[in-house]
Amino acid sequence: MVTLKEVAKIAGVSTATVSRVVNDQAKVGKKCRERVKKIIEEVGYRPNFIAKSLADKSSNTIGIVTPNLSMSFFSSLACGSEHASRENGYSLVMRNSLYETRSELDAIKSLRDHNCQSIILHSEYSDEQMLIKLAKEIPGLVFINRFIPELAERCVWLDNQAASQTATQYLISKGHRDIAVITSVYQNRDPATRVQGVQVAMMQNSLKLKPNLIAESTANMEGGEQAVKALLSSKEKFTAIVAYNDLMAIGAIHALFDAGLNVPKDVSVLGFDDLDVSRACRPKLTTMHYPIEEMAAYATNLAVRLVNEPEKNFSNTHLFMANLVERDSVADLS
């Protein structure tokens, strides 16, 4: 690997001059700058920014940890953070936790080894006390999609219960009384909170969510299909389904069509997230828009501010709301 010192020797200048050219600083003549840049290109010199950041205790990178970047929801989250990082003049370094606490902590350690002081963490299962400890050690650690009361000023989260209440109230306004829920088996807080929102909305309308009309499975298309098959096998009547996310909703539509049922004529389906795929399926999916890109951008800006304005007292909370996107998958029975 070519070093800065070797570039300086070839160019016949000091290492300080090469450093100024690399960092685009002043005090270097135009001809000299162009000659050094040409030599850098010819010899393939690449600055060691990690070593530099460790030396001056700063970093031009922001870290993000999500469970699985291959999933549309988390790639949208990363995209929102990427845009905000660029606007702040930072590069984004991404890591997967793969739904494992150990991997999550290893990912955070890796980012800290790169001297990332601003980290966006989508933490599924880590213990709250561990996260509180990490927040004391990492100046710009921000949690997305998780609320920890002791760290409220660092949490950017969605009101899941209010969102599922809105979804359920919409179905009720369309004349649906027999409503089913397909939800995720993942043991985080969101599935239970959304089911609770459905129950609250139904209670407010003197209705009840029947236990036989709640089916759990994996939060993907295959899981949606399996959950609907379980609902159909229960022989319990339902005219509408509230799905944990868009992927489960699309899987539900597939299973209903396979069973000879029409969506939305026979059964209506309502999703959650408003991913691109919700507009590509047939019928186009009515869903709750989860502003994940906006939340990720907001979380990234917050993480930067926590590092750059350490003297400021950040006491705000950062709660986002979902909104209904009406398309073609819900029938009006009223």
Oligomer: single chain
What general outline do the C-alpha atoms trace? elongated
Physical arrangement of strands within the biggest beta sheet: 2-1-3-4-5-11
Number of domains: 3
> At the third CATH level, what is the topology name of the largest domain?
Rossmann fold
| Percent range for β-strand residues | 15-25%
Q: Determine the structural class based on helices, strands and strand pairing.
A: alpha/beta
* Number of distinct helices: 13
Low-confidence stretches: none
Largest sheet: 6 strands, parallel
Q: What is the residue-mean pLDDT, rounded to a whole number?
A: 92
Cα(first) to Cα(last) distance is 72 Å
Which H/E pattern describes the elements? Answer: HHHHEHEHEHEEHEHEHEHEHEHEE
Protein architecture, described:
A six-stranded parallel sheet has the order 2-1-3-4-5-11. The protein has three domains: 4-47, lambda repressor-like DNA-binding domains (434 Repressor (Amino-terminal Domain)); 59-158 and 293-320, Response regulator (Rossmann fold, 3-Layer(aba) Sandwich); 160-290, Response regulator (Rossmann fold, 3-Layer(aba) Sandwich). It has helices at 4-11, 15-22, 30-43, 49-56, 72-87, 101-113, 128-137, 160-173, 189-204, 221-233, 246-258, 277-280, 292-308, and strands at 61-66, 91-96, 118-121, 140-144, 155-158, 179-184, 214-217, 240-243, 268-273, 286-289, 318-320, 323-325. The protein is elongated, with a radius of gyration of 25 Å. Helix 12 (277-280) links the parallel strand 9 and strand 10. It contains 13 helices and twelve strands. It starts with a helix and ends in a 9-residue tail after the last strand. Helices cover 46% and strands 16% of the residues. It is of the alpha/beta class. Helix 1 packs across helix 2 (15-22), helix 1 packs across helix 3 (30-43) and helix 5 (72-87) packs across helix 13 (292-308).
